[in-house]
TrEMBL record:
Name used for this protein in its record: WLGC domain-containing protein
Residues in the signal sequence: 1-17
Sequence ranges assigned to domain WLGC in this UniProt record: 655-720
InterPro entries given in the database record: LRR_dom_sf, WLGC
Superkingdom, natural source: Eukaryota
Pfam families: WLGC
Transmembrane segments: 47-70, 158-181, 217-239, 324-341
Length: 720
């Protein structure tokens, strides 16, 4: 048991130190998204130090107990014959002992009584010691109750809540029964006796004390329940790894939604697992006292149990006072109230959240009058009709309602009309995750948005992010992709990222009119920076403070002529670009080569040909560190320019009608030998000549992975 506790505490230290690596090890997700699949954020330095010091102290305590149990030495007494000299020594010893006894009788009586009282407190069978044990039990129950409240507030699955509450209630009721019926102690212990292996190798039962009974509850709370939650996460996590491997082999790096494990995984399942595993980390001072406190009390009880194992003569009859009616009744009342509180919390929140199917996780709160929603997910990843895609469901009012309580932490919307970001979100100070994909921000006010001969994009009038967005200082993930028809953002507040020091993921895409990107110097913990389909963006912000950046993605930004200095980036694992990058050939990296297709007139977007940067302007060319990074990732940057045949066309009314909402159906596209009905980038199901989804589906069918194939529509892909 002690070894199990030591191993668990060691893993908790890793979870608080390197959360992504620790969870990847357990969940086998280290290969997903360069090891950043779970997107755990490092704790603030103060909390981190508290967690490491507290857990290390607990681990050291378990280690000392283990050493104590394994290295017990037996005392061997040797009897020798008594000699004449021995008799002389004994006589002198007796004389000294008599003198000491005479001195002892003259000691102050008050001091003697004080020493006697202290002895009673440490005596196993004293009433004072039993009362202290009872007080410790109440402290344990208080810590466990605080943990239960945290579990309820975290919106844990009902089975987890019920299991934890049962352990706490059983702990209290068991203690009360022992005090009500002390003569039945052996009966209770016989049900939960500890089986052990003696040092001689025999197996048997041994009754240590009543403490062995209650250590089990503390063990369940501190170690058993958390290990169960980890097992639950591992056993319920489903991810089609073969399907994902096919995507990585078929699609080029720029297809972010198809090659990102985070985009493919079930969002509801991922969020629930994230919250469960995240709750095992120490994230606040209160969390520190409850988590570490319960482990410290368990370690102390194990230490006492080890004393009793090594010294059987010190074992006692009872731990708590006999027939203490007040204390026992208090424990029973506590257990009843805890049951009522837990049941009412679950029932009340379920009732008020039932009308909101989009709320996938909510806090269990018995005083809730409005749904205390924690995670709102409303995704439509494959619109079937043109009207459904261009005129999606308006969710502005729904988001406002669920954000009204201020509990909302996660928002994920795909293909939804989100005309205005409601002010209610401003009160969600614990907001950590925002993802908007293919959102029509201002459908009514849009002037126009269409491809003209696949060469130019007519920009639209859309709304910007509200200035108060910068107040969401706990935001960890921000992804905003505008709707290709409804348009994207035209601007961002200049200081929006100044105080977002915990933001780890920033992904901005399909914001065609965005010309200026605000400063990111405040994003000191940023690990992923992605910019895609930004036709008007002419410059990226300075990366001077992005020392923790691990992934950099720049896709379809034809007006960029140079990159910011990358000297500060020391942990870069992935650097991917797609389509035109004039900085690859205009002299930014050294040699200017205007014959490179990347510097020519763009065959799709019509971007003018690039010119060489002035040779005498060293401030416009790459630093040595930037050139070294470019050389390191030469295989994934400065690739081929997009050609008309490579471009994924936007869904049009005729291309969507020809598919009739059926994925992977064969269709006809002008100038293409074969075409497939596909929802590229979570857009509407439309006919596309792209070779990538065709090859992807053929491999899926051949290997029997992915959605079951339908021979009526997919025979041309090999379905039988």
């Amino acid at each position: 048991m002690v070894l199990l506790c030591l191993m668990w505490t060691t893993w908790l230290i890793l979870l608080n130190s390197v959360p992504n690596a620790a969870v990847n090890r357990i969940m086998d997700t280290g290969a997903f998204d360069d090891g950043s699949f779970w997107l755990f954020v490092d704790s603030p330095p103060r909390i981190y130090r508290l967690a490491i010091v507290g857990l290390s102290s607990v681990g050291l305590g378990y280690l000392l107990i283990l050493v104590k149990l394994l290295t017990k030495r037996r005392c061997v007494t040797r009897i020798l014959p008594t000699t004449k000299s021995d008799r002389k020594v004994n006589a002198r010893t007796n004389s000294i002992a008599e003198t000491v006894n005479n001195i002892a009788t003259t000691l102050n009586r008050t001091a003697s009584r004080s020493l006697g009282s202290a002895a009673l407190l440490v005596s196993n069978d004293s009433l004072a010691r039993k009362r202290i044990n009872l007080c410790v039990k109440f402290v344990d129950l208080a810590l466990e109750t605080a943990m239960l409240v945290q579990i309820l507030e975290d919106g844990s699955p009902l089975g987890h809540v019920a299991g934890f509450a049962f352990i706490v209630v059983a702990n209290a009721i068991g203690c009360a029964l022992i005090m009500f019926f002390p003569s039945r102690t052996k009966l209770f212990e016989s049900l939960v006796d500890l089986m052990y292996v003696t040092r001689e190798g025999t197996v048997g039962y041994r009754r240590f004390t009543d403490t062995s009974f209650y250590n089990r509850f503390d063990l369940l709370i501190a170690v058993g329940y958390p290990i169960f939650t980890v097992w639950y996460c591992f056993s319920t996590f489903t991810f089609d790894r073969t399907k994902f491997a096919i995507n990585l082999e078929v699609f080029p790096p720029g297809w972010r939604l198809e090659t990102s494990a985070g985009s493919i995984a079930d969002p509801t399942q991922t969020i629930i697992i994230y919250k469960i595993l995240g709750s095992l980390r120490i994230s606040s001072v209160l969390n520190f006292f409850t988590r570490v406190g319960i482990n410290i009390t368990l370690a102390l009880k194990f230490f006492r149990a080890s004393d009793l194992i090594n010294n059987p003569s010190r074992q006692q009859g009872e731990v708590y006072p006999k027939q203490n009616g007040v204390a026992a009744a208090t424990l029973v009342v506590f257990a009843v109230l805890l049951i009522v509180y837990t049941e009412e919390s679950i029932r009340t929140s379920a009732t008020v959240c039932r009308p909101h199917s989009e709320c996938v996780t909510y806090a269990h709160r018995w005083t809730a009058l409005e749904c205390p929603c924690l995670a709102l997910i409303d995704n439509e990843i494959a619109p079937k009709t043109y009207a459904e895609w261009t005129n999606p469901k308006n969710v502005t009012d729904k988001v406002a309602v669920l954000a009204a309580t201020g509990d909302l932490q996660i928002i994920q919307l795909t293909n939804r009309n989100f005309a205005v970001i409601p002010n209610e979100i401003r009160g969600c100070t614990k907001m950590r995750y925002i993802q908007f994909i293919d959102l029509n921000y201002s459908r009514i006010r849009t002037k126009a948005s269409q491809f003209i001969n696949h060469r130019s994009l007519v920009y639209t009038q859309t709304k910007t992010i509200p200035v108060w967005m910068k107040e969401l200082r706990k935001l960890e993930f921000l992804r905003i992709e505008g709707h290709p028809v409804g348009g994207g953002l035209v601007s961002l507040p200049d200081d929006i990222f100044d105080d977002m020091s915990v933001l780890t993921t920033l992904h901005m895409a399909s914001n065609a009119a965005l010309t200026h990107f605000p400063s990111v110097l405040g994003l000191t913990n940023l690990k992923l920076f992605a910019v895609a389909t930004s036709f008007s963006l002419v410059e990226l912000p300075a990366f001077d403070n992005l020392s923790n950046l691990e992934r950099l993605v720049v896709v379809i930004t034809p007006l960029l002529t140079r990159l910011p200095d990358l000297s500060a980036i020391k942990k870069l694992k992935s650097f991917v670009t797609m389509d035109r990058g004039a900085w690859c050939c205009n002299g930014f990296l050294g040699k200017c080569d205007l014959h490179n297709p990347l510097c020519d007139v763009h065959p799709v977007w019509g971007t003018p040909a690039a010119t060489c940067l002035p040779a005498n302007r060293m401030d416009l060319t790459a630093s040595i560190a930037t050139r070294d990074i470019a050389a390191k990732f030469a295989q994934s940057i400065c690739g081929d320019v997009l050609r008309p045949a490579d471009v994924q066309p936007l869904p049009a009314e005729d291309t969507m009608i020809s598919c009739n909402g059926v994925l992977y159906h064969q269709c006809t596209f002008p100038g293409a030998l074969e075409a497939i009905c596909y929802n590229a980038r979570f857009m509407g199901i439309a006919c596309t000549p792209s070779k990538y989804p065709i090859e992807m589906r053929r491999r899926q069918i051949a290997q029997g992975v992915g959605d079951p194939c339908n021979p009526e529509y997919e025979a041309w892909l090999g379905c039988k």
